[in-house]
Amino acid sequence: MLPLLLLTALNAPANLVPNPRFEETGPQGLPTHWSVAAPREEVMPRLSRDAAGGRSGGAAAILTGVGERTFGAWRTTASGLRGGQWYRVGASYRPDQIAWPAHAVWLKLTWTDAADQPLRTDYVHRRDDLGDGWERTAETFQAPAKSVAVELDLMLRWTSGTVRFDEVEVTEALPPAPRQVKLAAVCWVPTGGSPASNRAGWAQKVAEAGAQGADLVVLGEGVAMVGSSLSMIECLEPVPGPTTAALAPVAKQHDLYIVAGVYEQDGDTYYNTAVLIGPQGLVGKYRKVHLPETEALAGLTPGDAYPVFETSLGRIGLQICYDDDFPEVARALALNGAEILCTPIWGDGRFNNTAWDVIPRARAMDNGLYHVAANYSQKRSLVIDPWGNLRADTAGREGLAIATVDLAERRQTPWLSSAAGASWESIWRQERRPNSYGDLTR
What we know:
Number of helices: 9
CATH class of the largest domain: Alpha Beta
Strand order of the largest sheet: 2-3-11-5-9-8
Oligomer: single chain
Radius of gyration: 25 Å
Shape: elongated
Number of strands: 25
Distance between the termini: 68 Å
């Protein structure tokens, strides 16, 4: 009987990358099957190989920058692909003296047909810390229908630092499972006049959404206060507290998540807060970072963090009302991994109400996010996809905006960086220049 390790190796999918660990060398001591790619000689990083510098003690291919003008890559081609097949593509790397590794070190894919014509470009942006200074960037992609090969660029740009590469991979993979979720946003202004009646009414609205199969229901800002004559301070509550207690049983009954705005008291500090409640209870909370002066004069304090919550649906980020007018909020949440952005918002009446729905659509488009916004003033609660399309809209009436989406869907579009088409979620991450954004924090 064959040993278990040997059986595992025999059953492992074939790696289509030639010389994936840089063990074979040519006459100049550089890895065979690999070349350098750079737009001109002056920007080309320096090439080298370390026979014992790889992640597992084997070889590593090295690029060393020549300053801020650096732009180049180790390049190879993985052949023998089958169009329509899914592939796992990745590489391990160890940056050294690079201030922004996620923006200086990249794995770029160019899928080509039998005539060596480009079909699509992808950038691998998901990264995991492997320890000992090594990271891994890897994702699963479906090869375009006519592709027979994929060109791999292990890129270094705009730095004087050094990066080592190892364990490059293109292997057949199973397609990712669909991740269909039903997103809902409520548009409703209570008339009961008390926090208790408001909470009961909101629980009923969530139950109605749950009866329609909603997996995530976004409610408005300050749900205990809206529609009453009470002030924010008169509606303060702890978190967890009365609102989470009223909504949690509905979340459990219908196996869904709820986002709701509350005015939170934490000791002698007050916040405008959004809570995320799941089937098991309170998942987390976000404290509104951007306060209009009316809220500051009322005694509220701003938050200062952009948490993203891992749920059974996906990664959820929260913002509140005025935050939507500051693009940095949605961008920070997207960089922190959010797939769905939820916005309880009183309203946006700027420019004779023309700002709403342009702004929430822009936040979705800029960051490749699904955006679910519950709105009072314009009576337009929305579900928006990463293209900026309105998937559901209460259209000036109270009611429920609800839509089914697939979080696993990849969206390809021609763009300046890829005439053949690429994923915008990858492109904006790849082409950000955080080292130049100092003015934003003045």
